[in-house]
Amino acid sequence: MIESLAVPSRPLESAPAVRAAWPKALIVMAHPDDEYALAATAYRISRELGGVVDHVVITNGAGGYRYAALAEAIYGVSIAREADGRANLPAIRRQETLNAGRVLGIRRHHFLEQTDSGFEDDCAGASWHAWDCALVRHRLAGLLGGDDYDFVFTLLPSPGCHGHHRATARLVLEAVADLPEECRPVVLGAEAGRLADAPCAFGGLPEDALTRTAASTPAIVFDRNAPFGNQPALNYQIVANWVIGEHKSQGLFQTDCGKHDAERFWAFAVTPHALERCRELARRLLPTGRVGDFFAGL
User: Which of 18, 62, 119, 164, by CA, is between 20 and 30 Å from 157?
Assistant: First the structure.
């Protein structure tokens, strides 16, 4: 287990000195580059709202060798063949994550260095057995107990998604459920998509009550097309593209530039009053975010 500190550059906009940092958010993802799903939201929180964002990466990213050939000329080592990729990619992808973290203003990165077996659809049969889940649970419990996070972001564990993402969401929800109710941060499942496409209705996985959401529609939707201040030609899609560009080893990922203009977030029911607390976050994100269906008319 390796932990490192990414030192962010100076925020573009400083929050008022009289206000304590809010919100404090923890991102927990299975792989390097998964933070892309909430890149604009993380940037807005850390760079513009004066909040704090920390980042946990569970796996070492060694399974990302399939489309890495293009980056071999950049890094000067073989990473596209499985044996070479598994040997060389963990250090490369760790540095790529730190580089992306400097863009997003991440305060601390925590690398748990678990085995990345590549794409798996069976959460229980692959991800949970390949990882040292006791260590992951211990580290998450330590982070949640040692810092007063307001929100924890992970990827939405929809039925068709990567098994590692569903395993990560389950571990996060377990860790939060172990806290006293009054101490629980709101857990949000993130999904990057297109505003032109209707969001999925996700109420939880049928076989897993802990994944139940407070509403089947997104609680918050962040529009990446929103402009920066008085610069209508510049928007938060640029931030998402910056993050993609830092993960050069992931060749296919580069084709996502400009593809997704919505960051959607579903609130899990494990935390009491989760939707009400999301409303406050949505108000802080506005006007660059917009409120989900639950808050229409409020």
Answer: 62
Mean per-residue pLDDT, 128-157? 94
Please provide the average confidence, as pLDDT, over all residues in the chain: 89
Q: Is 77 left (phi over 0), alpha (psi -120 to 50) or beta?
A: beta
Threshold 0.70, pTM exceeds: yes
